[in-house]
Write a structure and sequence with these properties.
It is built from twelve helices and ten strands. The protein is of the alpha/beta class. It has one domain: Divalent-metal-dependent TIM barrel enzymes (TIM Barrel). Helix 7 runs parallel beside helix 8. The relative contact order is 0.12. The strands form two sheets. An eight-stranded parallel β-barrel has the order 1-2-3-4-7-8-9-10, surrounded by five helices. GO terms for molecular function: isomerase activity.
């Protein structure tokens, strides 16, 4: 019976995310290994991780150590980068920066790269909130059409590394959703974040869930963390009101990593245990 349980469990790709727990990527890999995770997501918002990744000798160490420990590597790109800024030089820098990260991750045989598109600016116009893309809809749509085409063509060089756009910020603008429908496929993919959906109001939540249900085959990473809907708490699973069983059943037949994006690392382990308990209680394991 125990063997059957572990066989079922091994069907799915579980990972934990490491953000501030360590100052080096090798220690994050070691922690995943010691706690029986087959994969780890390295969050490059850590002060030190990106500087390590930028050094060729460090990339070699990361590759060799991950292979030695049999740990698959996933990465979350730095946040704060925005493709919505109107200055072409800044936008070009953001795009090239993502390409550079993609190339680094290719060297170390990473499997996923999660990115944020950034957000547009909101201006007060006679008591109303107006975003720049709403004033210049055609310009923004033409620009992002070119951006997505350029990215999709660039990442074809390594079809084993999925470039995943996460549901946050400008992801939710209707013209972006429309363009994503045009370009999704190959290794141009999606990251579904459960906590981000839970913060949305009723209609926006319904629209986002419908989008993911329609395009579930392109969801290659899922960030699992809990909240009560008031803010993005990244809480331990079970300390909020998210229906994790729904997301598991949506994605269980996908080539998708279930990533416990809960900090610190000990909370991720508790979340994993709570998640497994939910699956067992509902006949999924």
């Amino acid at each position: 019976m125990l063997k059957l349980f572990y066989n079922k469990l091994m069907k799915y790709k579980f990972a934990l995310q490491i953000l501030f727990d360590y100052n080096d990527i090798l220690s994050a890999i070691q922690f995943a290994f010691e706690n029986n995770f087959p994969a780890v997501e390295i969050n490059l918002n850590n002060f030190y991780f990106l500087s390590h990744l930028e050094k060729k000798e460090e990339r070699k160490k990361i590759l060799e150590f991950s292979k030695e420990k049999n740990i698959e590597l996933l990465f979350h790109a730095p946040e704060g980068i925005s493709l919505f800024l109107i200055n072409e030089e800044i936008r070009r820098f953001s795009l090239n920066f993502y390409k550079k990260i993609f190339d680094y991750l290719t060297e170390i045989d990473a499997k996923r790269m999660t990115t944020h598109l950034g957000s547009d600016f909101t201006f007060g116009i006679s008591g109303n909130k107006v975003q720049t893309y709403q004033v210049y809809p055609q310009e923004y749509e033409e620009y992002f059409d070119k951006v997505f085409l350029e990215l999709k063509e660039y990442i074809k060089k390594n079809k084993n590394l999925y470039f995943c756009i996460e549901n946050v910020g400008g992801f939710r603008y209707l013209f972006i959703l429309s363009l994503l429908e045009k370009y999704l496929g190959g290794n141009f993919a999606l990251t579904l974040d459960t906590g981000h959906i839970n913060r949305l109001e009723k209609e926006a939540r319904k629209r986002e869930i419908n989008f993911f249900e329609k395009h579930k085959e392109f969801i290659k990473a899922c960030h699992l963390h809990d909240n009560d809907g008031s803010w993005d708490q990244h809480n331990i699973i079970g300390k909020g009101n998210i229906d994790f069983l729904y997301y598991f059943r949506l994605l269980k037949n996908n080539d998708c990593y279930f990533i416990f994006e809960v900090r610190p690392k000990e909370s991720a382990i508790i979340s994993y245990e709570n998640f497994i308990k939910i699956l067992k209680e509902n006949g999924e394991l």
